[in-house]
């Protein structure tokens, strides 16, 4: 057992100390930081460029408009000269001049481009409300007459918002899950296959197998890679949580987070569930197969080619999920959710859409776990025969010879 953990820790430490692992870990956070930084710089440089100023000799008109539309108005500008200078420096979209002449309210907009539909609608609404208030005051109506004129029609909406949000959350969760599974599997199948293939036919392997059993060495390699995967997932979870806390408090993203809080919560609930177990087990079974593929290459120089068969299998499983995103009733979906190498894609898809019972999930997990144990045990038995082959024979000859070595 001690030798098993020596191999495990040696594999783990060698991988985590490599520059490729460091970049793999830091890559998403660097992209997040660059995106936030670029957004902040863009927002800072463009601050005020989309706002308008309100100019009016009647201070009441100006104050009332600012109260009704605080977000679109630069309140620091109060005269035409300052507004024009700001516009010329591209620090102001334009200015609105409000006038009151003989009981009539009017507005004149001067800008570098036409008003947006939302801003224009709010300006028209303010002008109409102000004019109506002045008309009522000038008409000297009784309170009952004013109340009668102020009657407004009503429009009610009954929308199943939770249903709509849940459906969108399922779609987003589906794409995040399959892409995440695909990317992690591709990364670690390549790492594992090259890790095994690089030792192919070397003298050091004969020395290692004389001091420990092949199955212990093989399992140590697999466990080492598994620890690397767990370390990456843990860093991503902690870093992702930190990024989410930052986004909740950042002025740049706070509004977006608050607006889509329910959607983000639903997506996170779908991801941080039993689906993570399927991700982990899927990586394990693909890693074992990648180790087998790496052991089958003719020589260490072929390490780059070792992962190709496993990558192609992963690619096939990835693309097969696409047609069934909205067709979960298909018998093929139900079958593949129990088939090892495919269940890590299809069962999470069913879980996200609430299409799998607890019994079905348990059965799928049991099949996947038994397949992992059986595959690891069998490959461990023939591992020495595969690794000590040095002849440059065909793939199938090496495969048959490896299978014949079973002790």
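Sequence proposed for the structure above (407 residues):
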């Amino acid at each position: 057992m001690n030798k098993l953990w020596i191999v495990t820790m040696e594999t783990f430490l060698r991988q985590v100390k490599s520059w490729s692992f460091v970049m793999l870990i830091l890559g998403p956070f660097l992209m997040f930081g660059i995106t936030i930084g670029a957004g902040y710089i863009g927002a800072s440089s463009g601050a005020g460029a989309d706002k308008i100023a309100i100019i009016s000799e009647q201070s009441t008109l100006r104050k009332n408009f600012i109260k009704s539309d605080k977000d679109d108005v630069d309140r620091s500008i109060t005269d035409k000269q300052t507004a024009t200078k700001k516009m010329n420096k591209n620090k102001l979209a334009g200015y609105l001049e409000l006038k009151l002449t003989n009981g009539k309210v009017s507005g004149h907009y001067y800008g570098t481009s036409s008003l947006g539909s939302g801003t224009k609608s709010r300006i028209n609404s303010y002008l109409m409300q102000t004019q109506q208030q002045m008309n009522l005051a000038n008409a000297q109506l009784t309170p009952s007459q004013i109340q009668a004129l102020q009657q407004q029609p009503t429009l009610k909406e009954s929308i199943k918002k939770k249903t709509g949000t849940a459906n969108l959350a399922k779609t987003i969760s589906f794409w995040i899950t399959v892409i995440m599974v695909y990317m992690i599997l591709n990364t670690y199948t390549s790492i594992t296959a090259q890790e095994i293939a690089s030792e192919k036919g070397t003298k050091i392997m004969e020395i290692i197998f004389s001091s420990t059993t092949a199955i212990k060495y093989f399992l140590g390699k697999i466990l080492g890679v598994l620890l690397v995967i767990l370390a990456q997932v843990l860093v991503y979870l902690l870093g992702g949580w930190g990024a989410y806390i930052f986004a909740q408090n950042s002025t740049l993203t706070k509004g977006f987070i608050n607006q889509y809080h329910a959607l983000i919560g639903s997506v996170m609930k779908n991801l941080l569930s039993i689906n993570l177990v399927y991700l982990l087990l899927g990586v394990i079974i693909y890693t074992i197969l990648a180790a087998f593929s790496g052991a089958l290459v003719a020589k260490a120089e072929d390490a780059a080619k070792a992962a190709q068969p496993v990558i192609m299998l992963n690619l096939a499983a990835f693309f097969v999920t696409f047609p069934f995103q909205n067709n979960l009733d298909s018998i093929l979906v139900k079958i593949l959710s129990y088939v090892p190498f495919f269940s890590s894609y299809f069962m999470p898809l069913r879980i996200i859409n609430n299409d799998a019972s607890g019994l079905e999930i348990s059965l799928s997990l049991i099949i996947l776990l038994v397949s992992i144990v059986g595959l690891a045990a069998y490959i461990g038995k023939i591992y020495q025969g595969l690794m000590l082959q040095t002849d440059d024979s065909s793939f199938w000859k090496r495969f048959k010879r490896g299978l014949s070595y079973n002790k």
